[in-house]
Amino acid sequence: MPTCHLDNRALFTLEGPEAEHFLQNVITTDLAKLGSGECRPGALLTPQGKILFDFLISRAGDEAFRIECRADIAADLVKRLTLYRLRAKAQISSPEQSVISVSWESDSGSSYSDSTVIDRRFPETITVYRHYGDAPAQDAGVEDLDRLRIAHAVAESGSDYELGDAFPHDVLFDQNGGVGLRKGCYVGQEVVSRMHHRGTARRRLLIAQADADLPAAGTEIRAGGKPLGALGTVSGKQALAIARIDRVKDAMDAGNPITAGETEVTLAIPAWATFTFPDSDGDAG
Predict the structure, then answer these.
(1) Where are the alpha helices (DSSP H) in 212-267?
(2) How confident is the model over 102-123, as a mean pLDDT?
(3) For 240-275, what is each residue's pLDDT tens digit?
(4) Which of 31, 148, 182, 258 is the most buried (most CB within 10 A)?
(5) Hey, CA dihedral for 106, 107, 111, 117, is it positive or negative?
(6) How far apart, in Å, are the Cα atoms of 254 and each of 6, 13, 247?
(7) Could you tell me if 238 and 246 are in contact, meaning their C-beta atoms sit under 8 angstroms apart?
(8) How far apart are CA 178 and CA 29, in angstroms?
(9) Which residues share a beta bridge with 41?
(10) Range 199-227 average pLDDT
(11) Over the stretch 8-52, which tens digit does the pLDDT of each residue have?
C-alpha cells in the first residue's frame, strides 16, 4: 500500500462543550454529518463567499476536533478562529507542524489506530487514509500523491487555486462534503447558497488530459481566443484545471481546440461528480 509522508502540514485542536456549536456557525463543513474515523474538507470564507482558509477536519474525541491545514497558514487560521470565538466555551490549541502520512488502497480492509482517518474527499472506489500518529513506512513520494489527486479531482490551495480567489463550488466542495448546503448560517453562507440554488457556478475543477506532457501549473487554458481557466497540479500528461465550464462547452460544440500554452488538451468532469456541462440554454446540473 503506497504511503507518502508530508512535512508541510500543521495540526491544531478545538475542544470544549461548545466547540461543535461554535464551528458549525463559522465554517462550511456540516459537522452533523462528520463521523468518527473520517476527515472532511472545510473552509473559512470571506463574507463574499470566497475561500479564505482551507483545511481538513476530523473528530478527536467527544468534544474535540482536529484541524489539519497548510503549515504556512496555520497561525493565521488559528488567529481568525480565535477572533470569531468570543465567549464560546472552546479552547483552540497552538498549531504544531507535524509530519502527516497519507496512504491509499483500492479497498478498505485495513485497520489502524484512532489517529488514522479516512479522507472523504476521494470517491468510494479508493480508500485514502491520513495518519496523525504512527503510520506505515514511506514508500511513495509527493508526486505519487499528486497523481492520485489528479485522477480523482481533489484540489488543494497553493497547488490548484489561491486562497481568496475561489468559491467552494469552484473546487467541488459542494460535491465532496466540504460545504453543508442544508445547514444554518456560517460566514459567507448567503453567497454560497445563492450560487448553488440559482445554478450560477460556472468555474469548476476539471481533469485535463493531453497527448504530450503538459506545461507548468498556472499556464492559461484558452479556446477560440478566449481564456477558459488555468492548469493546477500537473503530472506528465494529466493535470487538474479550474475552468469556466460554459466556455469549455462552447468550445467543444464549436470544435475549437482547447489549449494549455501550445499543448492541446481535453477537459473532463470527474466521473464521480454530479454536475454537467451547461446545455444550450446555459444551465448546468
Answers:
(1) 245-254
(2) 82
(3) 999 999 999 999 999 999 999 999 999 999 999 999
(4) 258
(5) positive
(6) 43, 51, 10
(7) no
(8) 5
(9) 56
(10) 96
(11) 999 999 999 999 999 999 999 999 999 999 999 999 999 999 999
- Is-contact 62 16, C-beta < 8 A? no
Q: Provide the CB-side half-sphere exposure for 228 (13 A, CA).
A: 30
Answer yes or no: is pLDDT of 144 > 60: yes
> Cell numbers 500554452 label which residue?
261
**Residue whose entry in the numeric block shows the C-alpha cell 445554478:** 199
H/E segment holding residue 19: helix 19-24
Residues present in the chain in total: 285
Contact 251, 223 (CB under 8 A): yes
Going by C-alpha positions, the residue among 225, 260, 232, 229 that lies closest to residue 245 is: 229
Q: Which three cell numbers stand for residue 48?
A: 463574499
Q: Which of 8, 75, 27 is nearest to 183 (CA)?
A: 27
